[in-house]
Structure formats: structure tokens, C-alpha cells
Amino acid sequence: xxxxxxxxxxxxIEKYLFSIYGSEIEVLGIWKLGNKKPxxxxxxxxxxxxxxYAIECKFEGKVKRxxxxxMRSEGFGHDNFSDRAQVLLWQHSAFGKLPKxxxxxxxxxxxxxNQCLQSLGKCREFFILTDYIEGDLYHADLDRIxxxxxxxxxxxxxxxxLSDYLVEIHKVKRDAPWLYVRRVRELVGHGECIMxxxxxxxxxxxxxxxxYFIDLEKNCVVWRWNLKRRTHRLxxxxxxxHPWNVLLxxxxxxxxxxxxxxxxxxxxxxxxxxxINYIFYSLQKHGKLSGAYEHLFNxxxxxxxxxxxxxxILEVIQPFYAWRGLVVASPIWYPDLEKNVRTxxxxxxxxxxxxxxxxxxxxxxxxxxx
Length: 370
Known about the structure:
Helix content: 40-55%
Strand content: 5-15%
Distance between the termini: 47 Å
Shape: globular
Number of strands: 11
Largest sheet: 6 strands, antiparallel
Structural class: alpha+beta
CATH architecture of the largest domain: Alpha-Beta Complex
């Protein structure tokens, strides 16, 4: 992947979109998602890798928005062009199979001359094109609670809606033991998962030493052998169900984004990905799981367990929480996090791996050394 930005022309984008829709299309604007739409003429000179961009266009008398995105190459198993192509090709095939997921319109490639082509022989980098969805990311609710210290009734409704969503998608089973074994193996060894996260921690940190990571890897291998015997648990999953992949609109209406790593897996993956964030935010606000975050954490868990009756999840979620704990404690993803918060998160990771059964009502016991 080149570090230089792509220099796409307006005409190139219009030609590509015509190949999809079969109608003449005018590109009205393109801008980095999260920024305001520019008021001037369309300028594509700054289009860069690894960022989602909104495209606004007009065809058949209507204005439509969509999102185009490539992947960054820096670590986490995305180093090679083929790694990134694999992810985007899979996402295009899988997004439409999960309820409430944003729709993928197409997957394509930039050629060596920055032209969008159907032929892949000279492609330079892949991209995915999805629908543009209005809404606010769920983390904005968690940010507001941290700032104000107050929880609304709507926060409870949204928490339950997210928990209910997992209840529903996890009802779908599949008898394919090899897929469960693969998912557990990737949990430990994949570049996006535990070992990839450990490799991303820079050396010489003042809050953790190498011995901690070595012991953690050993414990995770033991957990892999524990989990790979539980192939009966294979279910439909999202794979990256966290507050930055949920777009909320009025009330508890939402759309999910960026399904990852496979259509089938362990339900604990999704539950841990969301609920670790109630712990994460509460540590920043209170130094422990407390207040509104503790209420939402317990509400999510109690609703999920009541409706799924899956008590076995408490015996398998430990390495998934370890992975997600490593994510939120990461100096790469969260460079400004206070040291004491990182320390408690890494203590959580260490202690959760030693627990035979997760006690979700006693999370604070995992946050401090004995």
C-alpha cells in the first residue's frame, strides 16, 4: 500500500457508479466521514487510505449518499494486500446476511492508475462501498453519561435493545464444529485478536512488563483447548459488536456496522465486546464499576441470560474479555488513558483468565490485585 493519497477524478467515480447502477450519475460531494460536507466544488485529491468517506451523488432525480472505505495496513494481520482484500471481500458477502446491518453495495479495487476496474490483475488496493446511514454512534451516550453522571430512561431502553439484538441473532445455530474451532484458534492467534494486540504494545512500558504478556499467552493457549471442545455453542455472530459499530437514531432504533471475522462463532465474543465498555467507561469515571455504568452492565447481562438461558457463557467468556480488555487498555488505541485505568484493565485481563466461572455481579473483584 502506498502512503500517498489517492488522486481520483470526479469522472472516475461517476464512471464506476454508472457501472453499478446503470444510470448517469453526478457526484455532488465527497468528504471524510465525521466532517462536514464541503460547500465548494468536488475535490478528490486528498482521498486517503484507511478512512471512510461519504459520497453524495444525484441520479434518477434523487440525491443518494453512500460510504467508501479502504483498510489501513499497519499491523493487526492487515500487512499484506491479500490480507485486506480477504477482509473486504468477506464483508461484502456477509453484511447483508445479518439483521439490522448496513448494506454493502459493492466491493472493488483501485488499479495502479487509480482507476476503478472490474479486472483484478492490476489492482492496487480494495475498497468497500456501503449505504450511508444517519445516526449517532452509541459511544456518544456513554460519553454523555461520563460527562454528566446522569442516566436517562432511554439509556436503559437502548441497553436492552442491544442485549435483545444479541439474543435474537444468537438463536441461529449451525452444526459446523470446524468453524467454532477456527474461531477459537483465531481468538488467540489472529493478528486482530489476542496475540496481535500483544504484539502492538510497544516495549519499555512503565505499567506492564514482558513477563505479564508471556504468562497471559500461556493462559490463553490453555483456554483454547478448553473452548475448542465446546463446538455445540456455534452461533450466528456479529464479531465486533461495540459502541463504535452501532448507529442509533430516534429511541432505540439502530443499525450495526462492520461485522468482522466470520458469520459464525462464540456468542461470548459479542457479549464481551459490548459490555467491556461499561467497565471501561466506569473506570475512567469512578475508578471501579459503579453508578449508571454498573446498572447498564447488569441490565445487559441479566436480560441476556434470562432470555437465552445460556449460563454456560459464564464458563467461556474469559478469553474474550481478555482480548477486549487488551483493546481498551492499549496505548495504541487509547494513548491518553490514565495509568491507573490501564493497570486495572490489565489486572482484569489477568484475573479473568484465572476464573473458572465469570461472576458478572462482582466485577470489581477482578479489577484489583488480591
